[in-house]
Amino acid sequence: MSKVDYAEMEKKYVYGTWTYQNKWNPRVIVSGDGCYVTDADGNRILDFSSQLMCSNIGHGNRAVIDAMTEQAKKLCFASPSFATPPAALLGKKLAEIAPGDLCKSYLTIGGAEANEAAIKIARMYTRKPKLVSRYRSYHGASSGAIALTGDPRTQNAVGMPGVVRAPDCYCYRCPFGKTYPGCGITCVEYIDEIIKLEGPHTVAGVVVEPIVGSNGILVPPDEYMPRLREICDENEALLIDDEVMTGFGRTGKMFCVEHWGVSPDIMSMAKGISGAYLPVGATMTSRKIAEYFDQPENNFSHGQTYANHPMCCAVSLATIEEYQKKRIVENAARMGKVMEKRLGELAEEHRSVGEVRGKGLFWGVELVRDRETKEPFVARHVKADPNIIQRVSAEAMKRGVYISNFINTLIIAPPLIATEKEIDEGARALGEALVAADKETR
Q: Which of 63, 238, 272, 327 has the largest count of CB atoms under 10 Å?
């Protein structure tokens, strides 16, 4: 069948996600190899965003595919009431590589499910109802996760009660109108104020992405996460670290919080845990939480059919082994310096670039209509389709490079196996695509 047949068939029978169905015109992808995917017309496309920031080890990794095949021959599924070797080994491996004393995992099938588990665990453990999250954040589309989420996609969502949102660590557009470092990190101190005003006896925890993902690749000041850890301890609230997008080498460390020497009480993960070869997620807890549920009176009241799925666990275990064996995380850190330099050069050349920010191979390029005023091309809650940000991505795609975008930010996050040559290829196409945005500036 032709590309048009598949595209039209999918549009007719499958919902496109987060989009107006009548405007969805998907490209048909048929294969992948390393940092590239190939469409139905045979066009080879550099995957400069790792699909949805999840294909961390690239496409077509033979070791992971072999692990998947071998496990399929043995056992594809078991009820989570049984134990299986892949689940046991994955849990042990996660305990070995996680920061601090995170030691026990609930193994699930994605990031939203991992955050739903984090919510329930926090409330069960603390016996408190409220959670603090931030306005610019994404934690998933299920009821609890979307309630934590603070982005335009929550407008039609009805989530759970009990969530209080805090301002963001967004230095480029500081919600307090201050400038770092003279700001005193007001954004994190305000979380302390929120907890105290809500009542520490009501707040179970604070949920943050250590670097905000799809809502702008917002990198906090170095003081932010250590101070947030202190605030949580002072108010007897849990620090819940959403590493769904930032985990498994994306920022040049195995987990992003390691940049600041911080250990959370609960950490959720997905995406990179399996390199997206199968849908996998996990929720890790500290020793004190694990010991709480070891007590006979404290039931772990959570689960789902596909928890501890042996195929998913086997694939994740093989993926983590690839990170370690091939030193993929170290490559992300090394290539991150190359990426920073290339994107910095583009910022100097193109007046539509307001700011470049990121770590490792996790970068955001925020576009603006006016550099002096920082006027955005797209207002946060205004539906402008197609907009200039989408046009820049489309121009890059014409040049054989896929770049994801959200609101005013292009998300640059190639597979962690990317080479300097591939980074140069992507940056070159991005530079050519930015000319379209430059023409719309003031």
A: 272
